[in-house]
Q: What sequence folds into this?
């Protein structure tokens, strides 16, 4: 019957289709929503997108700020913030009372190593690319190398000795041991040296065109970090030299005269800023620190500027007026950082976090000069900062007093910015002195081992060669 | 070929008939066939006959009657060869009367069996057992079911004669030269065995009755059916009627406890919640452990890729399958049953067969079920006085003076206020409405069922809304008149509309008992100066969620009998599940002090899958040997795509649901996935005399989830069974034993439940561009060498039947080795990511015992009692892990211990001196260190579990009572809150037994509200200690179903064929040592499975 022949054919055909091309039948292309590694580093544009991805991820992690950002955590660890009781994030209480435990979460570790992986992956991908243009290769390699150094700088400062990961292969890295801080610093200096060579003076767009937007690091950014690293490692002449190069580039960098504009996007003082996403908000630090927006502190917005910091300012200090604001709630006045002024505008952000700005370079050079015996030069640099803040210039101090004055100005100029105060306390050797009075006020007991955060327990469990910091 | 066909009946031509005659008959057949087919398509048959004609030959008349009635005639051609043609005119005469009229004056008579009319010589009816001892005769026959449909492939054995044959596609068989006293034994899968003495007759009509005996009931297995009697694999069947006695919206909760080796946990009592399903323990250390779901032969998804807009969105894909449409479920466990599913069967398979129409009068069946559900509350929280005492004591212990910021509850809240948040937030009654209607019927060639259902379930939360499901089910089975060409088409569709809140309000029941009123006097939300620890609970209820899911499962199966014993078949399947959902955050749900704006999130998800599975089947019987072979192929492709869209910054709630009005709009994520799959498979079954059975399965699988180097792999199994009660010696020695089978199976299966594309090193796009261009970031490490995870399964089973199979006992021992584990191997984050998927040379062993016992204890006309019980005793152990000490698992796993076990600190009690938990430690009892002090290992897998069913029927009454039980350990409910007692949160009343002053012996450490105190640290250590290990065993009265069938006389009066009134109860009573809310989901922050009571009525017309 005809039916059967038709059916016969259908059945045979089905079997035939089924047995055709076994191998092809189960191969799939990458999903349309993604790119694969090889194609990312095939063109200048996609490679630039991958490097942009590092910055983009940074805006969302501890570098970008927020309630668990570096500025917030380091400010709590030091004496910059008072914590409103019972914050919703338990980590903050532990950081604040300098009583982190080995079980504590460690966003700084996780985020920085994640960025380091991205940088390593980009360095490897770009280096081995045969199809990218050499200018693009040079620029992007310079950026990625800079990022790696930048991340390691914060890692050593929070954790001490850390594993030095310079490749993207997990197989060779999963058993990494900690390297001595000196070795990590050596790597940072090498990377920054490379970045200095590879990067150009200009700020560029992802496509390599010149721009006034300071969203990607340039050569001066690398030198700014190099100056800081030399200062931290006591190589004062080099620190002074690097800082000088940045300071002397007046066509790029000038201290803003209006203190209110220090956080504005692409202001003249900014050396490197992160572009915040266009989601209606501005900076993430701004969105957590601006207590005026919330009607005062709460368990969600627990960051109150410590009285001890507020009282350090002279009454005439313009920074006290422009960078600190307060709100009264139930008869109590709460101070909060007001460097970032915008919360939610619903418009593209007007403010960006300043990862590096010129004022720090003056302070670096002042300190390097003071340490090297150039006391007048040191006071000159310090006075640049003092003058802008509207406080009298100083003169005729001895080296000890100059260093003290610089230290104080660092505290007042750079408060709640990228952990400067916490790191300064540690490198000055003065931390036990200061914290043994501060920590009890914060409800904890100071132990000198609290200078270093614990290596995350999860990492120690997974990497047998990792050791814990003392005291945890 | 000596038999020709006329419709579904047939002529038996004389032995030396010339071929021309045969051809002529066939032509006639063909013409008539078309007529019959056309008739068939009209779906209806009259049992009356009209005929009008002159000198009609009998054969033509019979053909016409067949056409009009769907009955079949059965006669020897020689018998009517010389009959007189008939002239008559009748109209709408019943068949009986018509035949009397027609045969009037002929030497013929007739009788009817089922749907077959036998035309015989007049005398033979009166003396059906003419015995012709010693003579050899030819016997022909036809085997049908109760509906008169021919059964093809039924086996006919001549007792003691070592001769056997199978029926052809028309249900016909023939023996030549048979002793006239021979006895035929007819067997067919799923039907009761029948013996027929030939008694010298040359024609036999056999009607087989569906087996009520569990041993002979058809079991749906991969690509076919079998029975428990002849199976060499482990298959458990749950009948639809047992599922439909339970008021559930996901079939998984209806089969919980009913299948040995199947362990199910319902994770929450919210409608549409998720389930954990494990068949025979956890095979895989980290990969998926979902079984393979197959609906009517078409693979169905086992989990969603839906981005979680809400914790419950699409918790389990079976939420979108209507339990009322299910005819039966087969759970396949061992190698023999699952190896043919190859790489996806390591975790077993659950085959769902939906209802099909049955031949017979068209029947309308309506089922209405109404009821309500409540959360079985039982947790005692602190009352206001106790709470305030706790808080004050905590401050005292911490040496901190309460102020309005750290203690709003002590200083600003009304200390006389008391709210039972548990009652307020989850103490409501959920309503349950369910109505199902089915129209079914058909004839021997075509059967159909059309079903529609509506299900509406609200919530116990104080909010309106419901999860509504509208479903339709359609199944059409058609066979050509010669039964060679068959089609089965089915469509199941469900539209789910859910506007219930997607946040579980149970997470708010820990609010302080003196917390302020959630509403101000003007009805607005009370924000209480931002002192709600996680917001006002009623603000959450102001968020609007709306989810729509449309689920389509469709398939068509075409089969054709090519040659004798050869059958070609292909299953075409298509599934589509679409979800569109949105949830809003209106300004009204947010604290105005934060100057909030409105936001909305949209989710769109689309899953499509198609599959083609062509197969060839061959069946043959040689004497006592029966073989069955299957070869087939499977091609599959699943596509999944979707996106999440966020709109922000609405300044007014009025425009919130208009995405176009969003001031800021952003695609939060977009994803797509293609999964391709290809397989060749085969099965060979050999059965000798239903005594020795051998089964071989093979499959070669390829999956797109694996790297190009390792895409294909072979899987195989062997099963063997020995029905020793077929051995004469046995039967004589153990007369009580009616059935005994010893069987074993061994084989390999695989697991591919890792995400797709893991062998590609992928980059994703960040949510926001950077500097105006797309930013890319690496998603994870790639591994191009990914392979299958393989599970080798072994099982030995013993099936026994006593007292004519009234008592059935099954005992099984299984031993599954899973190796080449596919793990998201954890990596230290310093490498860049926290894990990489890779194959690990580790072996996990699952073994255990499974028992089931079923007895028809009492079976009389008026009263019957059936009882069954099943019990599973599972074990799990890490058999091998080369290099464990160097691996990232060294602290998590121990060779020889279950992979479900965790290493823990040992809590030694509360230190009487300091009031803080103490632990066994080498260095510091207050600060145990990892891994030195994790001294005990506790297992969270069930120790044993099972179910106990009793069914009673008395006259029209039917009562079913089902208990499930499990012995298991789980978490301690006292350690489920994020921080130690003393914080701004309510706690279970049991925390009152705390340390207060030095020297106190207490079970709980002292109160503290300090996050960094040693009390707080000790609380976290306690969570990782054996104190967080408590007995969560339970015995649960899971289901009670009582129904009453209205008596016939009453039914006749109201013109209803059948009417049953019923009452169903689910989760009625739980006996447990666990003190938290529910020992099944073991959470004090998630809604426990609800207690559901419903009543309804079922009508058939």
A:
């Amino acid at each position: 019957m005809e039916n059967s022949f038709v059916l016969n054919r259908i059945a045979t055909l089905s079997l035939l289709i089924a047995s055709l091309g076994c191998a092809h039948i189960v191969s799939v292309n990458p999903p349309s929503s993604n790119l694969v590694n090889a194609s990312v580093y095939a063109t200048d544009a996609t490679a630039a997108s991958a490097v942009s991805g590092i910055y983009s991820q940074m805006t969302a992690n501890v570098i970008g700020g927020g309630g668990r950002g570096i500025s917030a955590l380091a400010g709590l660890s030091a004496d910059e913030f008072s914590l409103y009781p019972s914050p919703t994030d338990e980590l903050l209480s532990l950081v604040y009372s300098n009583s982190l435990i080995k079980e504590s979460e460690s966003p700084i570790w996780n985020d920085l190593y994640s960025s380091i992986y991205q940088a390593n992956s980009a360095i490897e991908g770009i280096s081995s690319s045969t199809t990218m243009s050499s200018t693009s290769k040079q620029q992007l390699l310079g950026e990625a190398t800079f990022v790696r150094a930048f991340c390691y700088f914060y890692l050593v400062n929070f954790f001490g000795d850390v594993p030095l990961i310079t490749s993207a292969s997990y197989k060779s890295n999963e058993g990494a041991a900690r390297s001595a801080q000196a070795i990590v610093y050596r790597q940072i200096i090498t990377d920054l040296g490379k970045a200095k060579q590879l990067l150009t003076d200009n700020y560029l767009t992802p496509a390599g065109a010149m721009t006034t937007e300071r969203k990607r690091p340039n050569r001066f950014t690398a030198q700014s970090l190099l100056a800081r690293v030399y200062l931290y490692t006591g190589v004062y002449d080099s620190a002074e030299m690097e800082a000088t190069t940045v300071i002397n580039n007046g066509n790029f960098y000038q201290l803003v005269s209006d203190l209110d504009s220090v956080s504005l996007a692409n202001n003249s003082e900014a050396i490197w800023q992160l572009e915040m996403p266009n989601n209606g908000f501005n900076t993430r630090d701004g969105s957590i620190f601006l207590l005026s927006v919330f009607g005062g502190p709460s368990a969600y917005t627990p960051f109150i500027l410590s009285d001890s910091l507020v009282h350090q300012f002279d009454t005439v200090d313009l920074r006290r007026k422009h960078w600190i604001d307060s709100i009264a709630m139930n008869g109590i006045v709460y101070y909060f950082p007001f460097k970032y002024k915008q919360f939610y505008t619903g418009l593209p952000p007007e403010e960006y976090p300043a990862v590096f700005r010129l004022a720090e370079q003056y302070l670096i050079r002042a300190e390097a000069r003071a340490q090297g015996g150039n006391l007048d030069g040191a006071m000159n640099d310090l006075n640049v900062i003092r003058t802008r803040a509207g406080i009298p210039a100083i003169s005729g101090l001895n080296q000890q007093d100059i260093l003290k004055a610089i230290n104080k100005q660092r505290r007042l100029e750079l408060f709640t910015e990228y952990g400067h105060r916490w790191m300064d306390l540690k490198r000055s050797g003065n931390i036990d002195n200061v914290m043994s009075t501060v920590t009890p006020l914060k409800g904890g007991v100071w132990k000198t081992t609290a200078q270093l955060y614990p290596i995350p327990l999860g990492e120690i469990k997974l990497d047998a060669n990792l050791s814990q910091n003392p005291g945890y | 070929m000596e038999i020709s066909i006329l419709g579904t009946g047939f002529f038996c031509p004389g032995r030396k008939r010339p071929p021309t005659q045969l051809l002529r008959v066939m032509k006639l057949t063909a013409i008539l066939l078309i007529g019959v087919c056309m008739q068939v398509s009209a779906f209806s048959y009259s049992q009356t006959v009209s005929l009008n004609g002159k000198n009609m030959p009998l054969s033509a008349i019979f053909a016409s009657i067949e056409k009009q009635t769907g009955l079949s005639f059965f006669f020897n051609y020689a018998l009517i060869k010389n009959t007189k043609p008939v002239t008559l005119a009748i109209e709408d005469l019943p068949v009986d009367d018509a035949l009397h009229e027609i045969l009037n004056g002929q030497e013929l008579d007739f009788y009817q069996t089922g749907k077959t009319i036998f035309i015989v010589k007049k005398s033979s009816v009166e003396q059906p057992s003419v015995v012709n001892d010693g003579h050899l005769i030819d016997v022909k026959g036809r085997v049908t079911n109760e509906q008169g449909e021919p059964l093809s492939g039924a086996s006919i054995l001549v007792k003691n004669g070592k001769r056997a044959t199978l029926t052809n596609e028309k249900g016909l068989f023939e023996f030549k030269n048979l002793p006239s006293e021979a006895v035929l034994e007819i067997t067919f899968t799923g039907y009761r065995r029948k013996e027929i003495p030939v008694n010298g007759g040359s024609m036999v009509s056999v009607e087989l009755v569906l087996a009520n005996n569990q041993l002979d009931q058809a079991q749906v297995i991969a690509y076919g059916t079998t029975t428990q009697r002849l199976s060499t694999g482990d298959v458990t069947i749950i009948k639809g009627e047992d599922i439909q006695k339970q008021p559930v919206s996901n079939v998984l909760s209806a089969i919980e406890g009913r299948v040995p080796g199947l362990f199910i946990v319902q994770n929450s009592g919210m409608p549409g919640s998720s389930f954990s399903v494990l068949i025979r323990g956890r095979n895989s250390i980290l990969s998926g452990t979902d079984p393979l779901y197959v609906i009517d032969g078409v693979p169905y998804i086992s989990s969603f890729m839906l981005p979680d807009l809400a914790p419950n969105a699409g918790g389990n894909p079976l939420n979108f399958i209507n339990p009322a449409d299910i005819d039966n479920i087969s759970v396949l466990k061992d190698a023999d049953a699952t190896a043919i599913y190859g790489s996806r069967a390591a975790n077993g398979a659950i085959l769902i067969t939906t209802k099909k129409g049955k031949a017979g009068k068209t029947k309308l069946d309506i089922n209405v079920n109404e009821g309500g559900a409540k959360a079985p509350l039982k947790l005692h929280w602190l009352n206001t006085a106790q709470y305030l005492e706790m808080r004050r004591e905590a401050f005292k212990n911490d040496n901190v003076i309460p102020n309005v910021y750290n203690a709003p509850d002590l200083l600003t809240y009304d200390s006389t206020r008391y709210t039972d948040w548990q009652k307020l937030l989850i103490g409501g009654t959920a309503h349950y409405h369910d109505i199902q209607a089915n129209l079914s019927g058909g004839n021997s060639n075509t059967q159909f069922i059309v079903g529609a259902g509506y299900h509406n379930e609200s919530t116990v939360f104080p909010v309106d809304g419901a999860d509504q499901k509208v479903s339709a089910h359609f199944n059409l089975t058609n066979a050509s008149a010669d039964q060679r060409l068959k089609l089965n088409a089915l469509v199941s569709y469900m539209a789910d509309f859910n506007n219930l809140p997607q946040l579980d309000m149970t997470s708010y029941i820990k609010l302080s008992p003196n917390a302020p009123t959630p509403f101000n006097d003007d009805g607005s939300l009370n924000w209480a100066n931002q002192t709600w620890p996680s917001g006002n609970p009623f603000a959450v209820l102001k968020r609007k969620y709306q989810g729509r899911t449309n689920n389509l499962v469709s398939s068509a199966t075409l089969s054709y009998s090519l040659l004798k014993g050869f059958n070609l078949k292909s299953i075409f399947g298509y599934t589509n599940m679409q979800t569109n959902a949105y949830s809003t955050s209106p300004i009204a749900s947010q604290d105005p002090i934060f100057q909030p704006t409105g936001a909305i999130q949209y989710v769109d998800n689309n899953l499509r899958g198609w599959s083609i599975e062509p197969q060839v089947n061959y069946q043959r019987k040689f004497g006592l040997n029966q073989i069955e072979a299957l070869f087939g192929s499977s091609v599959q492709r699943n596509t999944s795509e979707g996106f999440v869209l966020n709109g922000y910054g609405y300044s007014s709630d009025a425009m919130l649901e208009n995405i176009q009005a969003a001031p800021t709009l952003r695609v939060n994520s977009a994803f797509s996935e293609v999964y391709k799959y290809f397989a060749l498979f085969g099965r060979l079954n050999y059965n000798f005399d239903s005594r020795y059975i051998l089964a071989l399965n093979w499959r070669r699988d390829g999956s797109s989830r694996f790297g190009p180097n390792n895409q294909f792999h072979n899987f195989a199994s062997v099963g063997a069974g020995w029905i020793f009660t077929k051995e004469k010696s046995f039967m004589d020695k153990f007369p009580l034993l009616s059935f005994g089978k010893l069987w074993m199976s061994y084989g390999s299966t695989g697991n591919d439940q890792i995400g797709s594309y893991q062998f590609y090193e992928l980059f994703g796009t960040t949510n926001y561009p950077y500097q105006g261009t797309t930013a890319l970031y690496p998603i994870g490490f790639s591994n191009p060498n990914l392979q299958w995870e393989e599970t080798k399964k072994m099982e030995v089973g013993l099936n026994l039947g006593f007292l004519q199979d009234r008592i059935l006992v099954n005992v099984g021992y299984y031993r599954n080795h899973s190796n080449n584990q596919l793990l998201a191997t954890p990596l230290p984050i310093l490498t860049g990511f926290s894990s990489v998927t890779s194959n690990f040379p580790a072996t996990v062993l699952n073994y255990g015992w499974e028992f089931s016992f079923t007895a028809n204890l009492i079976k009389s006309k008026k009263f019957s009692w059936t009882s069954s019980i099943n019990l599973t005793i599972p074990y799990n152990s890490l058999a091998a892990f080369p290099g464990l000490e160097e691996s990232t698992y060294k602290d998590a796993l121990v060779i020889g211990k279950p992979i479900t076990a965790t290493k823990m600190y040992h809590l030694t009690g509360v230190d009487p001196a300091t009031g803080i938990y103490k632990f066994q430690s080498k260095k510091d009892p207050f600060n145990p260190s990892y891994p030195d002090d994790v001294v005990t290992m506790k297992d969270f897998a069930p120790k044993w579990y099972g179910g106990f069913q009793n069914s009673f029927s008395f006259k029209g009454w039917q009562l079913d009572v089902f208990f499930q039980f499990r012995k298991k350990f789980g978490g301690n409910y006292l350690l489920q809150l994020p921080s130690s007692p003393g914080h701004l949160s309510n706690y279970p009343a049991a925390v009152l037994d705390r340390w207060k002053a030095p020297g106190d012996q207490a079970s709980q450490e002292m109160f503290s509200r300090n996050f960094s105190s040693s009390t707080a640290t000790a609380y976290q250590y306690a969570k990782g200690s054996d104190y967080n290990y408590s007995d969560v065993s339970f015995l649960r009265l899971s289901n009670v179903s009582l129904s009453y069938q209205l008596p016939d006389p009453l039914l006749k009066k109201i013109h209803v064929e059948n009417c049953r009134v019923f009452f169903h109860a689910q989760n009625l009573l739980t006996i447990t040592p666990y003190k938290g809310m529910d020992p099944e989901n073991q959470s004090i922050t998630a809604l426990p499975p609800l207690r559901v009571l419903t009543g309804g009525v079922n009508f058939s017309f």
